[in-house]
From TrEMBL:
GO biological process: glycine biosynthetic process; L-threonine catabolic process
Gene Ontology molecular functions: L-allo-threonine aldolase activity
Family from the record: Belongs to the threonine aldolase family.
Record keywords, A-Z: Lyase, Pyridoxal phosphate
Name the record gives this protein: Aromatic amino acid beta-eliminating lyase/threonine aldolase domain-containing protein
Lyase keyword on record: yes
Length: 344
């Protein structure tokens, strides 16, 4: 008999505000394979990677330990010989929250571009900043890295298509930080396939909204994924019994996002509804928002409300809530349906 560890009220520490794996994920670990992934022998990992490639319409996929690793190795695999630049949204995760990895891993400079509509980059924003000239003093743009969702905001498929068509005509590569692409899909913006096919590499995360304890996937061409695999190994990211992780990632995908490319019946839809409910409630009470709530994130304008982060935390605690700052991320949790996530 398989003995699965139980997630209990003790495991779910009071005040925990990040996602936790479900019972089904833990049970999947007990039934997984324990072969060595560095030697490409683990059937759970191999089949999961193949499924992810099919789901996104790419040739190949590689499991990564984190979204940061997946973004960074995706970019690294697309960039071979400096000088070059990566053009991206000025608010992007790869600029602000990946410990300067683009500079150290690829030697690229970053070209941050401000979204003129305040929500997402347009082709015109990008055309105004991309460096296509090979003039000796320039560091030419080689990759456009988009993020969807970004701060919970959806990048429309039509705009992605315009950018991708233009970029590919100009010989530029396209990377997507799709850590939270699931949310755009569930909100009805387009399917996984429709978005993923516009990019040379895509990062998708199983932690955060889908609830796996860790793990991300990078999809791309066979050639690109082979480069990423080599570099993953070089920085110590080669995993031996990776089946432990890929088994949980598969459950997180199937149970939380759903099994198709459209996120039909996805549990994430309820998180979006809950986020909208919270946003509306805040506004009804006279509060202002820092931006629209399109998926699972709510940004409270606490400055306009005249309260500091510390005060927000105190007031929340008095009302039995754990809120650390003005960004609220609503996610699914089996034991208590909706909860607040701290940081991704
Ligand atoms: C949009 C986005 N990209 C990348 C990451 C990085 O993922 P990880 O924390 O797994 O490295 C995050 C994390 O929250 C994210 O929100």
């Amino acid at each position: 008999m398989l003995l699965a560890p139980r997630i209990t009220e003790h495991t779910l520490h009071k005040g925990d505000i990040v996602t936790v794996p479900t019972q089904e994920m833990l049970e999947a670990v007990l039934k997984t394979t324990f072969k060595d992934d560095v030697y490409r022998e683990d059937s759970t990992t191999e089949s999961f990677q193949a499924e992810m490639a099919t789901l996104t319409g790419h040739e190949d996929a590689i499991f990564m330990l984190s979204g940061t690793m997946s973004n960074q190795l995706g970019l690294r695999a697309l960039l071979m010989q400096p000088p070059y630049s990566v053009l991206t949204d000025s608010r992007g995760h790869i600029i602000h929250y990946e410990a300067g990895g683009v500079a150290s891993l690829t030697g690229a400079s970053l070209q941050p571009v401000v979204a003129s509509n305040g929500k997402y980059l347009t082709l015109e924003d990008i055309q105004g900043k991309a460096v296509l000239d090979e003039y000796v003093q320039y560091s030419p743009t080689r990759v456009i890295s988009l993020e969807n969702t970004l701060n919970g905001l959806i990048m429309p498929l039509e705009e992605v298509r315009r950018i991708s068509t233009w970029a590919h005509q100009k010989g530029l590569k396209m990377h997507l930080d799709g850590a939270r692409l699931w949310d755009a899909v569930v909100a009805g913006a387009g399917s996984l396939l429709e978005y993923a096919r516009e990019f040379d590499t895509v990062n998708l995360c199983f932690s955060k909204g889908l609830g796996a304890p860790l793990g991300s996937i990078l999809v791309g061409s066979k050639k690109t994924i082979a480069v990423a695999r080599k570099i993953r190994q070089s920085i110590g990211g080669g995993m031996h019994q990776a089946g432990v992780l890929t088994a949980m990632a598969r459950v997180s995908l199937n149970a939380t996002f759903g099994t198709g490319v459209n996120g039909k019946g996805s549990l994430l839809a309820q998180s979006h509804k809950n986020a909208k409910y919270i946003a509306d409630l805040w506004v009804r009470l006279g509060g202002k928002l820092l931006g629209p709530t399109e998926t699972c994130m709510v940004f409270l304008d606490i400055k306009a409300a005249g309260i500091s982060r510390i005060r927000l935390e105190e007031l929340s605690a008095q009302n039995g809530l754990v809120i650390k700052n003005e960004r609220l991320v609503v996610h699914y949790r089996k034991s208590c349906q909706a909860d607040f996530e701290r940081d991704g």
